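Appendix B: complex inputs.
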Amino acid sequence: MKQLSTSDPDFAKRFTRLVEARREADSDVAGQVLDILRTVRTGGDNALVQYTQRYDGYSLVEDDDWRVSPERCAEAYEQIAPEEREALDLAARRIRAYHEAQLPENRDYTDDDGVRLGATWRPVDAAGLYVPGGRAAYPSSLLMNAIPARVAGVERIAVVTPTPRGNSNPLVLAAAHVAGIDEIWRVGGAQAVAALAYGTDRIAPVDVITGPGNAYVAEAKRQLYGVVGIDMVAGPSEILVVADGRNDPDWIAADLLSQAEHDPTSQSILITDDEGFAAMVSDSIDLQLGQLSTGKTAKASWDANGAIIVVSDIAGEAPELINRLAAEHVELAIDDPESLMRDIRHAGSIFLGRMTPEALGDYVAGPNHVLPTGRRARFSSGLSVLDFMKRTSFIGLDDKAIRAIGPAAATLAHAEGLPAHAKSVELRLK
Amino acid sequence: MKQLSTSDPDFAKRFTRLVEARREADSDVAGQVLDILRTVRTGGDNALVQYTQRYDGYSLVEDDDWRVSPERCAEAYEQIAPEEREALDLAARRIRAYHEAQLPENRDYTDDDGVRLGATWRPVDAAGLYVPGGRAAYPSSLLMNAIPARVAGVERIAVVTPTPRGNSNPLVLAAAHVAGIDEIWRVGGAQAVAALAYGTDRIAPVDVITGPGNAYVAEAKRQLYGVVGIDMVAGPSEILVVADGRNDPDWIAADLLSQAEHDPTSQSILITDDEGFAAMVSDSIDLQLGQLSTGKTAKASWDANGAIIVVSDIAGEAPELINRLAAEHVELAIDDPESLMRDIRHAGSIFLGRMTPEALGDYVAGPNHVLPTGRRARFSSGLSVLDFMKRTSFIGLDDKAIRAIGPAAATLAHAEGLPAHAKSVELRLK
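Resulting structure:
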C-alpha cells in the first residue's frame, strides 16, 4: 500500500505515477486467440468439440451434451436456499426496473424547412452472453448482462459457459432461470466467443457479445469487434473511497477490501482529510485481511495496488484527484456527497453517503455493475439497454422541402468532386 | 452488375452469396500500424516529424509548421464562393439542430424501496477528429464529426489532417471555421491517430477519436480501441434503393451511382417489382457513366458489386431482403414508404419517398452521414452526440433503504464467495 499526502513536496509526481500505473498486463494471447478464431470459423462444431475436450475436460458427444436445458435451470432454482432464491428475485426485479427506465425514445418530427426527420431505436436480433465457469462464476453477472438485453427487447439470448469436467454452478443456472434464459451452450473460452460471432451448425450467430471472461475471452471479443458489437474492453476492478474522519474505520476498510478480494490486480484507494482516520482504516484492513477467506488475494491487491491519499480539504482537493483517477466505483462517505458529486466528471458509478457501500451496486441496487475500468470512465459508460439496441435515422422530403435545401446539397457535392451526388438532387429540382 | 429475381429457382442461394460477399479486403497493415503506434508512443513529436516527411513530403520544422491557424481557416471561409459559404452554413445549422435534439436526459429519482438512483451524462474532455487529406478531403465529414462533438459539450476538439507537400483543401478549412475548430494539426495517417491517443509534447491526448481515413487510419483506431473511445469500424459505402415502376429511371440511376462513385468497393443495389423499369435504370446507368467525371470509379463499383433484384411484390418480399442486407443507406422510392419502413429492422438511415435522394443526407438533411456499413446496422448506429458523451450512474441509500435491500446483497455476496463484499453491507446493518 502506498501512502500519499497532498502536502508532500513530491505529491504531483507520485500521484501521476499512481494514475499511470499499469495493472493490465500486456497479454501475449493475441496470436493464440487469432488461431482459435480461425479454427472455429472453418471447423465449426468439430473445433468446439476438440477445444472443449482439451480445455474443459468435457466431451460434447451426444446432442444432449451441448446444452443445459431450461428444466435443469428451473431445478437449480428450486434447489438453492430460499434466501438465495429471494435475493436473486429481488436483484432481478430491481435491475429490471432500473434498465426499463433507460429505454430510449424514438423521434419523428418535421422541421421549419418542411423536412421530416427522426430516429428509431430497435433491439438487435440476437445477443450472446459469456458467463465464466469455475471460480468466477457469478450469478449476479448473468443477471446484469441478461436483463438489459431482455429489457431492450432482444428476442434471442444465447449464453455460452464452460462446464469444466461437466460441472456448472447451480446459482448461475438459477439466475439463468430467473432471467428467462433458455439457450445455454456448454462451451467457453475464445472458441465460444468465435462460435457466437461466426455461428456454427449448432449455434446460430449473434449480433452483440457481452459478458466478462479471462484474457482469452477478452482478446477474442476485442478481435471480433466490428464483426459483432461488444460491450467494452474490461480490466481489473477498482474502487476509490472518499471518506472523512466521521466514518467507522471498519466499514471503510471492508469497502476497500471488497474490491481487493476480486483479484490481485484490483485496486482500492482511500482519499481522506484525516490522517488519524487513515491509520485506523489501515489497521482495520490488516486485521480484516486475517479473517477473510479471500484474504490472500485481497492482501496481494492491497499490498501492490492499494493507496491512501491524505488531503487537507476534501471539497477543494478531491475533485481533481477523482477526475484524474476516473475510477470504476467512487464512494463518497461524507455528509454532503451531493455537492462533491457535481464536481466529478469521470466515474463509472458513484455511491452516495455513508450507507451506500459499493457492494450494494454489485447486486441489488439496480444500475449495472458492468462498468468502465482502467480510467475508461473518461470516455465510456456502464452496460445499458443501449448496448443491445441500435438507432436508424430517417429523412423525408417533399417537392417543397427539396427546393429549400436541395441546392445547397448539390453545391457541396460539386465542391467535393462527387457529380453523381449532385445530379441525384439536381434531376429532382428540374 | 448482377441481376437476380425472386422467381429464380436458385434465388435464395444467389441472394445469400450477395449478402455474404466480402468487399472489405483483409488488410495486412496490422503489423505496420502496430509498429507506427509504438514508434509514436516512445518517439513522440520526433516520430511525427519523420513520418510526416516520409509520407506527406512535408517538413515540421518551425513551430508554425505544425498547425493550421484559425486565421487561415477564417481566410479560407472568406475566399470560397459565396454559394459554397451559404451551403456550409446551411448544412452546419441543420446538422446542429438535429444533433441538439439528440442530447440525452439525466435521471435522478427515489424508488419505492427508498433507494435514490440516477445517471448523469457528461461530455468527454477532449475529442480528436481525423480528417483525410488529398482526394477524399470532405468538408461535409468535418461538419458531421465536429458538430456532434460541439453539441455534446466537448471543450477541446483537436483535428488532425495530412497536408501533402503542405497543401490543404480550402473547403475543409472553411468547414473548420464554420464548426469553430481552432486546433488543427498537420499530421495524418496512423501516426496522427497514435499522437491523439497517447499524446506527445505538442499534442495533448484525447479521449475519443472519430473520423474516416484510409486502411492505416482505420486499423490504428481499431488497435487503440480501449485506450481511447472510437466511433466505429467503417467499411465501403453502400446504398439499397427500393423503387417501383412509377419512378423516373434517370433519378434512380443517379441515386445508385451516387454511392458507386465513392470507391470501386462501394455497393449499389436496386430492388424493384418492375422488370421493364429495371432495364431502363440499367440503361440509364450505362449512359450516365459515360458523362460522369467519376465514371471510372463508379463503373468499377457497379460492375463488381452492383445488383438489381426483381421481386414480385415489394411489400411482401422486400422487407426480408432489406433486413438481411442491413445496408448503410436505404431509399424507399415508393408511394407509401411509411408502412415499408415499419418492417425494416436493420438500416443505417432510411430515405423516405421519391423526393429524398440519399445525397441530401450526406450534406444538409441534418442526421449524421457517418453510418454503419458492411451489415453492421444489425448492431450499431450512426455517429451521434452519444459517441462524445458517457454516463455515470449513481446510487444513494439511507439507513432504512439498506435495511430493505442490504440483506439480499449480503446473501448473494456470500453465495459468490466474496466475504468482504458481504461484510461491507453487514457491518452497516448491525
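The longest helix of chain B spans residues 30-56.
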